[in-house]
């Protein structure tokens, strides 16, 4: 890995991003079911650790909405959110995510970042955005619904205006307005910071009686190795899903900026950097983390030149930790407003509708993932797993299809299969050719044109060998034509007669 020297502009960019990252980290911690202050633990050291290995100069690592929701889904049925048991499980989950991502990066398997089907991602993220907004509505409206479940609680809050705390709802609305207007004024307008300052100011001025962040432990906890290790088997699947799905944002940000800046990025290095970040989050009292679109954009527009801008952000948060009592009066409804404003862009129902026009089978996968994510909440990780399984099943079903063109001229049968010849489709090709030969008893020559095959696996090659041997045993002459370059090895290793090129 090349040594990159920090640039003076990284200092300004890192500090600018830290002003936004601190309140966002508090908000996303609550979304994850964690005490708000643990968001700072998931931001400080992880941001520094990620900067040591990242390939993109713009990625800002720390708590993000999507990963926070996946964390809540993985742990909500195992322990009470916010309890010591829950906090310990979240730390272990972050460590597992970190180890998985480290292994992927070290083994140079970063290409798996591109294996998530777009319909699955669009369906999941749209539903996740709705769930995140729904989870924040009771806090934003200042009510405590007597029901359980993310959507039932949100519905109860909406239909019970008599129980709303007007001051809480007003602050949440003010936060939304500030953040939406700020984006229109200028991309670098510190909307989150302004909302937080206004929230604290109004809280102190009005003598706020609602819920606030409250007392926050100063400093960062020491290394924590006393984790609930017995829960590792229970958390492994969820950790794998978070490691893969959560990396989709990382890959998207890095790829987009690499294209715009005309510079390379390395998926393996990003997996390593995110693995280090999550490992540090788990070992120092945090929860699973990822890369933030909004903070990365601010970092880039603030002039970041190297990956060290992320380290500056983390160090700035570390420097702020002794003074965290300054934000203790911040109303929680302001944090709810920050989360709602940040995730509105995740809900892309129009894109789901567009999938119907583009491909109905793929649209079915997207809408199924969307419905499952809402229906199985908070176990959204299970919904993602089912969505991935549906996408794989659809892919395998499609790959089983072979278009088989054929023509009979004189005593020659020419067959040209189009598609992929693998163990799932090989039997059909064998059956189809056998049927054609049985219907054309006058055929004496079988010509196989393989140029229309995108790939031939070992099972397909062995099937062709058996077919050719059987045909020759029946007295036919068999020739191969247009053997694809990637199938030359089968011609040399398996097929008895060398191919005759047309």
Provide structural commentary:
There is one protein chain. With 502 residues, this protein is of the alpha/beta class. The protein has 20 helices and seven strands. It has helices at residues 8-31, 38-41, 44-51, 65-75, 84-106, 118-141, 150-158, 166-185, 191-206, 232-261, 267-283, 293-301, 308-320, 332-343, 349-358, 360-375, 380-399, 426-439, 458-473, 488-493, and strands spanning 61-62, 290-291, 403-409, 412-421, 445-449, 453-456, 477-481. The strands form two sheets. Strands 3, 4, 5, 6 and 7 form a five-stranded mixed β-sheet that branches. A two-stranded antiparallel sheet has the order 1-2. Strand 4, helix 18 (426-439) and strand 5 (445-449) form a beta-alpha-beta unit. The longest helix has 30 residues, at 232-261. The radius of gyration is 28 Å and the shape is elongated. The protein starts with 7 loop residues before the first helix and ends in a 9-residue tail after the last helix.
What's this entry about, in short?
The protein is of the alpha/beta class and 502 residues long. It has 20 helices and 7 strands.
In helices, the fraction of residues equals: 55-70%
**Average pLDDT taken over every residue:** 88
Task: List the uncertain runs.
Answer: 498-502
The main sheet comes to: 5 strands, mixed
């Amino acid at each position: 890995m090349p040594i990159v020297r920090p640039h003076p502009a990284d200092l300004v960019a890192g500090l600018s991003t830290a002003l936004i990252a601190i309140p966002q980290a508090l908000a996303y911690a609550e979304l994850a079911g964690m005490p708000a202050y643990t968001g700072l633990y998931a931001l400080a050291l992880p941001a520094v650790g990620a900067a040591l290995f990242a390939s993109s100069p713009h990625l800002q690592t720390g708590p993000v909405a999507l990963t926070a929701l996946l964390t809540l889904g993985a742990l909500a049925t195992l322990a009470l959110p916010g309890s010591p048991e829950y906090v310990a499980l979240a730390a272990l989950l972050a460590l597992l995510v970190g180890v998985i991502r480290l292994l992927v990066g070290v083994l140079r398997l970063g290409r798996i970042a591109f294996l998530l089907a777009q319909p699955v991602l669009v369906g999941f993220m749209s539903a996740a955005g709705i769930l995140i907004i729904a989870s924040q509505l009771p806090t934003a409206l200042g009510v405590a619904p007597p029901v359980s479940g993310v959507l039932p609680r949100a519905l109860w809050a909406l239909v019970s205006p008599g129980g709303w705390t007007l001051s809480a709802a007003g602050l949440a609305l003010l936060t939304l307005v500030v953040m939406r207007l700020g984006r229109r004024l200028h991309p670098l307008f510190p909307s989150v910071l302004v909302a937080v300052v206004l929230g604290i100011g109004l809280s102190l001025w009005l003598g706020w009686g609602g819920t606030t962040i409250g007392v926050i432990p100063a400093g960062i906890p020491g290394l924590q190795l006393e984790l609930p290790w017995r829960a590792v088997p229970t958390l492994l699947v969820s950790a794998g899903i978070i490691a893969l799905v959560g990396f989709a944002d990382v890959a998207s940000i890095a790829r987009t900026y690499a294209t715009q800046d005309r510079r390379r990025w390395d998926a393996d290095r990003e997996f390593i950097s995110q693995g280090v970040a999550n490992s540090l989050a788990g070992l120092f009292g945090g929860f699973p983390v990822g890369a933030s679109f909004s903070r990365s954009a601010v970092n880039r527009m603030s002039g970041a030149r190297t990956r060290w801008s992320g380290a500056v952000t983390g160090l700035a948060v570390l420097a702020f930790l002794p003074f965290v009592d300054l934000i203790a009066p911040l109303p929680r409804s302001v944090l709810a407003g920050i989360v709602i404003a940040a995730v509105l862009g995740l809900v892309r129902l129009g894109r789901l509708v567009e999938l119907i026009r583009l491909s109905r089978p793929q649209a079915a996968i997207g809408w199924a993932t969307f419905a499952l994510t809402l229906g199985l909440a908070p176990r959204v990780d299970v919904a993602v797993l089912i969505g991935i399984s549906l996408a794989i099943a659809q892919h395998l079903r499609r790959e089983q299809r072979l278009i088989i063109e054929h023509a009979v001229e004189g005593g020659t049968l020419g067959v040209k299969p189009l598609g992929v010849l693998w163990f799932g489709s090989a039997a059909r090709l064998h059956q189809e050719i056998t049927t054609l030969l049985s219907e054309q008893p006058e055929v004496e020559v079988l010509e196989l044109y393989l140029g229309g095959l995108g790939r031939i696996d070992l099972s397909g090659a062995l099937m062709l060998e058996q077919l050719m041997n059987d045909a020759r045993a029946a007295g036919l002459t068999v020739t191969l034509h247009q053997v694809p370059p990637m199938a030359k090895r089968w011609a040399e290793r398996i097929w008895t007669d060398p191919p005759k090129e047309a």
